[in-house]
Design brief:
heterodimer, A: alpha+beta, Immunoglobulin-like, seven-stranded mixed sheet, three-stranded antiparallel sheet, 10 strands, elongated, B: mainly alpha, Growth Hormone, Chain: A, 23 helices, 2 strands, globular, MFS_dom (chain B), membrane (chain B), nitrate transmembrane transporter activity (chain B), nitrate assimilation (chain B), transmembrane helix (chain B)
């Protein structure tokens, strides 16, 4: 049987390599690094430090404007702003799947995009002041977060950013997913399993005694 | 086959003597064990026992490894750290270490049917409760208790060794064990698909994974009930009936225990099994997350890849068992030992390669498949040898070996895949090196009547002597050792083609009634 499976191996391996190539991720288009971007935006978010927000219920209001100390005309190329929810360092600890990376294509810390990228508008209140209201989505897990906003140019590449960290972090209490019906189902089925065993044990004993 | 041709004559003699003797659809040896293996048959009691045992064991694997493919979701729901995940992975395989040994004893004393159904039904509540956990510690606890069900492996091997004759025992054990282990692979495919289906129905992600756990739970409950309703311990009947009628001597735990722990071969096989089966369990626990995080593939893709690791069991473990039986037909027990050492060592080498090719997705998948074939075949080869180590303490030794498998899984995960100390690909490389090192003790196993890897058989040593050693003269006089004597006769082929060392010149085909 091993010989037969040995003969099938080369074509099987070839198939796997081809399948693997199809599933492999394409190389990242832009190699932008966070350290290369200027921190040209000032971002503020409504939650206070340490406040707990409930997923699916509470909202975050985010405002951003050009940093006063940024050189004039720095925002000339800014077309849209992408706002993301990022994990705080405390929530990244011992969790390699949330690790921050300077190379933005490999960064895993800022996974949740708050709405669609917003136009970086020049409003009367001041250059590039905008607000955004966001209801925390139900699939945002329980953790500590801060808000980061990237300014994107016309081609979609990041050219500037701002974030609320390290000033303060807030918590989200995520959906636990447990419902009463689940509890009932678990209890009933567990009891049934044990009862089935007891039933057969009694039947066996009766047969033995006969 | 020659055995089958002579059987009718012998059976007619026996049938005339004892009209109450059961008649079987399959050809059997003097012990009423089947001498053939009909995979697609449900013939009672041999093949029905096979199908009941592999399927119930499959369901236990489904439950024990239901969490790993869903970890990317569970870790967010419960806020797990890498340490929490590693600890739960270790817990999932550590519970079974002692329960497997206990199962071995239970099989020796009350029979595989009751022993396996009991452990399976008692652990299903843990599976159902996995749906309602809400903290890292409760996650660890449910994985710990669910893992107990893997002890049903021992009853699978014991049951097959009771139902199938030595020339087929490697194959029967290999297919039953392999198709059961398949659950560890299939579940990596099933759970993400079930999760997606439930989510499409309208559930939130964090509820959907919880509902998905009811599938393995229900399957486990139903399969155990089937074992109780339709299974039978031995070809001649269930233990309770055989004990009552006096056909089978009810052994004592003390004797069974003593003869198991004093047999050094049992300890060596426990260690080496930890580095084929134990490694398989460890990989089941980490591989989906590894592909998801290292290569950024989708959850269902990572599940598919992880599944192909476990699904190789469909052919690899039975292939190992078949190879063991074939090697035995050519070279006897020495062939079985060499086969095990070579295949398991190659598995270790491939494991090192898997850790080294982490730069390429395609190469990683390909090497992983090859690695799975070899490491699982080694499991099949191991249980081609275990039935011969002892006849009196077969259950406990199967349990020790099985338990050793879990110890290997615990150690491997503890050393290499716990917390953030090693990157996963580095851990895999070192695991491969450990496999190669811990496979070397196989060179030390020696059966006086059949030899070892580097040692030939002792002249004058016989299988009868080896198995009768486990019984005192007093017990032998009372006939308690009849099963061992029959087993020794049927093991004549383990001496290899150059001829058996048996004191009896009676070939395996005829029964004692002819002499």
């Amino acid at each position: 049987m091993m010989a037969r499976s040995g003969a099938a191996l080369p074509p099987l391996l070839l198939l796997l390599v081809v399948v693997g190539a199809c599933f492999a991720r394409p190389a990242a288009a832009a190699q932008s690094h966070l350290s290369a971007l200027g921190r040209t935006l000032v971002v503020e978010a409504s939650p206070k430090a340490g406040q707990v927000l409930y997923a699916g219920e509470d909202t975050i209001t985010v405002t951003w404007r050009l940093n006063a100390s940024a050189p004039a005309g720095a925002d000339a190329g800014y077309k849209v702003v992408k706002v993301t929810l990022c994990y705080a360092p405390a929530s990244q600890e011992d969790r390699g799947w949330r690790k921050a990376n300077d190379d933005l294509s490999k960064d895993k810390a800022c996974k949740f995009e708050i709405a669609q990228p917003q136009p970086y508008a020049y409003a009367a209140a001041g250059p590039g002041t905008r607000t955004l209201r966001y209801r925390v989505a139900r699939d945002v897990p329980s953790a500590s977060y801060h808000v980061r906003a990237y300014a994107l140019d016309a081609s979609g590449a990041p050219v500037g950013y701002g974030q609320t960290a390290p000033a303060y972090y807030f918590r989200v209490a995520g959906d636990t997913g447990v419902h009463a019906s689940l509890r009932v189902a678990a209890a009933v089925l567990s009891a049934l399993s044990v009862a089935a065993l007891a039933f057969f044990a009694v039947v066996e004993k009766r047969r033995k005694d006969e | 086959m020659a055995e089958g041709e002579l059987k009718p004559a012998a059976m007619q003699v026996e049938a005339a003597e004892a009209a109450s003797k059961p008649r079987f659809r399959m050809p059997v040896d003097s012990d009423n064990k089947a001498t053939e293996f009909w995979l697609f048959s449900f013939a009672r009691p041999h093949m029905s026992a096979f199908h009941l045992s592999w399927f119930s064991f499959f369901c236990c694997f489904l439950s024990t490894f239901a969490a790993p493919p869903l970890l990317p979701l569970i870790r967010d729901t419960l806020g797990l750290t890498a340490t929490d995940i590693g600890s739960a992975g270790i817990a999932s395989v550590s519970g079974a270490v002692f329960v497997r040994v206990a199962m071995g004893t239970a099989c020796d004393l009350v029979g595989p049917r009751l022993a396996s159904a009991s452990i399976i039904l008692i652990t299903t509540p843990a599976v159902y409760c996995s749906a309602i956990i809400d903290s890292p510690s409760s996650f660890l606890l449910v994985r710990f208790f669910t893992g107990f069900s893997l002890a049903s492996f021992v009853s699978t091997q014991f049951w097959m060794s009771s139902m199938f004759s030595p020339p087929k025992v490697g194959l029967a054990n290999g297919v039953a064990g392999g198709w059961g282990n398949l659950g560890g692979g299939a579940v990596q495919l099933i759970m993400p698909l079930v999760f997606e289906a439930i989510r499409k129905i309208g559930s939130t992600p964090f509820t959907a994974w919880r509902v998905a756990f009811f599938i393995p739970g229900l399957l486990q409950t139903l399969s155990a009930i089937a074992v109780l309703a339709f299974g039978q311990d031995m070809p001649d009947g269930n233990y309770r009936k055989l004990h009552k009628s006096g056909d089978m001597h009810k052994d004592s735990f003390g004797n069974v225990f003593r003869h198991a722990v004093t047999n050094y071969r049992a300890w060596i096989l426990s260690l080496t099994y930890g580095y084929c089966f134990g490694v398989e369990l460890a990989v089941d626990n980490i591989i989906a997350q590894y592909f998801y995080d290292r290569f950024g593939v989708k959850l269902s893709t990572a599940g598919f890849i992880a599944a192909s690791f476990g699904m190789a069991n469909i052919i690899s473990r039975p292939g190992g068992g078949l190879m063991s039986d074939w090697l035995s037909s050519q070279f006897g027990m020495r062939g079985r030992l060499w086969g095990l050492w070579v295949v398991q060592t190659i598995g270790g080498v491939l494991c090192v390669v898997l850790g080294a090719v982490d730069y390429s997705f395609g190469a990683s998948v390909a090497v992983m498949i090859l690695f799975s074939l070899f490491v699982q075949a080694a499991c099949g080869l191991t249980f081609g040898i275990v039935p011969f180590v002892s006849r009196r303490s077969l259950g406990l030794i199967s349990g020790m070996t099985g338990g050793g498998g879990n110890v290997g899984a615990v150690l491997t995960q503890l050393i290499f895949f716990h917390g953030s100390k090693y990157k996963t690909e580095t851990g895999i490389k070192y695991m491969g090196l450990m496999i190669i090192a811990c496979t070397l003790p196989i060179t030390l196993i020696n059966f006086p009547q059949w030899g070892g890897m580097f040692v030939g058989p002792q002249p004058g040593a016989t299988a009868e002597d080896y198995y009768n050693r486990e019984w005192t003269t007093h017990e032998s006089e009372k006939g308690f050792n009849t099963a061992s004597v029959r087993f020794a006769e049927n093991s004549v082929r383990e001496g290899g083609r150059s001829g058996s060392q048996s004191k009896h010149t009676v070939p395996v085909e005829s029964s004692p009634a002819d002499v």
